């Protein structure tokens, strides 16, 4: 059975929402994750690129759909690939409010943009 991890962060990259699927997939409980930076999930070798892209997305939000198999740092210290979709969240005027990642426990997008 496929389940979905949903992680929401504010414009500063602080996690504001973490569902049960995120607990199951990534190994951190909601109290452990909410209030922490997205570095909790981003492998160290990718953090510089992640924050550069996150900053651009928050400064100049666009509606676009990024779906790829994304590497995630899990609570046990392992890095795993999950089919994920990243979205910039905007208000009615187009200003960025944050971002949301949705990850599936099974399957692949067939796209691996990150090393």
TrEMBL record:
Annotated Pfam families: PAS
PROSITE patterns in UniProt: PAS (PS50112)
InterPro entries recorded: PAS (IPR000014), PAS-like_dom_sf (IPR035965), PAS_fold (IPR013767)
Gene3D superfamilies on file: PAS domain
Superkingdom field: Bacteria
Domain PAS: 1-44
NCBIfam families: sensory_box (TIGR00229)
Protein name in UniProt: PAS domain S-box protein
Organism field: Streptomyces luteolus
Highest classification ranks of the organism: Bacteria, Bacillati, Actinomycetota, Actinomycetes, Kitasatosporales
